[in-house]
Amino acid sequence: MRKDKAWWWALGVIALGIYGFVATLQPDAHFGRILSAYGGVFVAGSLAWGMIFDGFRPDRWDIIGSVICFVAVAVDYVLAPWLLIRTYLELSARTLAPGNANLGAR
Predict the structure, then answer these.
(1) How far apart are CA 19 and CA 102, in angstroms?
(2) Is the pLDDT of residue 26 over 70?
(3) What letter would DSSP give residue 52?
(4) Rounded Cα gap, residues 40 and 67, in angstroms
């Protein structure tokens, strides 16, 4: 922390703390996905904060790490639901297949 910007860190801590607390209040059963999105926002926000308020310039490793975080969030929000839908459709097709012994057992 720099002496001339001592109060900025408190604002950042408060903002990130509020954001993290609000994320825990989500009533969704898929809290892991919410936490994943929070992680992606945290990484982007941290880099943006450093660039705007501290004059930080990210190097290639910072950018690579950020891209990895965003890819993980994309997998969680795009690929995972697609795989769940595909699995559900495959199981439904097996259940409704002709000759299935469980078809009439209700």
Answers:
(1) 48
(2) yes
(3) H
(4) 9
Residue 4 gets which letter from DSSP?
Answer: G
Please state, in angstroms and as integers, the Cα–Cα distance from residue 40 to each residue in 23, 55, 70, 86, 87, following that order. 13, 21, 6, 26, 27
Contact between 19 and 38 under an 8 Å Cβ cutoff? The reply is yes
Q: Residue 95: is its pLDDT beyond 70?
A: no
Q: What does the block give as tokens for 1?
A: 């922390």
Please list the alpha-helical segments (H only) found in 54-105. Answer: 60-74, 80-95
Euclidean distance between CA atoms 31 and 33, whole angstroms:
5
Confidence of residue 102 (pLDDT cuts 50, 70, 90): low
Tokens describing residue 105: 């057992």
Q: What is the pTM of this model?
A: 0.49
Q: CA-to-CA distance for 82 and 76, rounded, in angstroms?
A: 10
Taking the alpha carbons of 60, 62, 67, 68 in that order, is the dihedral positive or negative?
positive
